[in-house]
Specification:
Layout (H helix, E strand, L loop, with lengths): L3 H13 L4 E5 L7 E4 L6 E5 L2 E4 L12 E3 L4 H16 L5 E12 L3 H7 L4 E5 L3 E5 L2 E6 L2 E4 L2 E6 L5 H7 L1 H19 L3 E16 L2 E13 L8 H8 L7 E2 L1 H12 L9 E5 L4 E5 L3 E5 L2 E10 L5 H10 L7
Antiparallel strand pairs: 1-2, 1-15, 3-4, 3-7, 5-6, 6-14, 6-18, 7-8, 8-17, 9-10, 9-16, 10-13, 11-13, 12-13, 15-16, 17-18
Helix pairs in contact: 1-6
Length: 323
Amino acid sequence: MTSPQDWVSSLNAYGSKSEPCFFLIDFEMKNVIVRPMHSLGDLSFEFNGVNGGNYIPSEISRKVLLNKYPIDYKNYLGQFMTVQQHIKYGNSFLINLTHKTPIDLNMSLKEIYACTNARYKLLFEDQFVMFSPESFIQIENNVVSTYPMKGTIDAEIENARELILADLKEAAEHYTIVDLLRNDLSRIAKKVEVVQFRYIDEIITEKGKLLQVSSKISGVLPDNWHKSMGDMLLKMLPAGSISGAPKDKTVAIIEDVEVIPRNYYTGIAGIFDGKNLDCGVCIRFIEQEQNALYFRSGCGITSMSDPLLEYNEMINKIYVPVG
């Protein structure tokens, strides 16, 4: 589906009929997939314990070996300074800058899908595998919740939990995204409130543990929200945590600076079971082009950002969650 009118109408139709479906919406919203749950084709998923698709993973006994070859710091710094100029001119307060890093892996996409542990796992055969820790929105009993994630630190660093919560730059970035997502949620829901602010999740990777900071924001939907499910998602997209604020201007900056389209990376993937909805942000993302593999990762840039720290964070997010 190539136009918002097509996929929005399709999701509205599934919602109106209370028919379970799967959806995958790319960052640019130009290559959207909406399929009935009983006919997923070459897609397989596992979202918060709910499985679907044709691929049955087998046990993987060997250890994941990942080598990464990131952009050199000089080139990264050039893009970073371009982003900082936009922030200086007031075009944006926060810009999520991402990169496409060549990697070597000792496993296929199917094997990575089988051995990873994440809230949202998705295998698009021969194209990409995603193992995301971040929920976009969840709807249950007419309550919609979103979970912006901002702030990552190596758990092995001494006092890592205290350091990440006390970091002024990380706090400012998190405040900005929470405010943006609260406003986004207010476009579709009432009684919107921040339920939990800056809590920490632990993620186990092939090289150790990471800590990530999230918040939970919730609101109340009307009883007939299913009938406008597609319209609701369109009002919320793209996800604020992987774009920035203000959203429209920031997305234009991202397209200019990054040059390469993100496609399904930083889009969303989700399921509607006929009553409730659950979808995640497509981050922690490995894609295959011919015989080469690439890992997409990034971080939020603000006026307080240190380029070397942001560069290292972008690299540190290149991992496989195996715990």
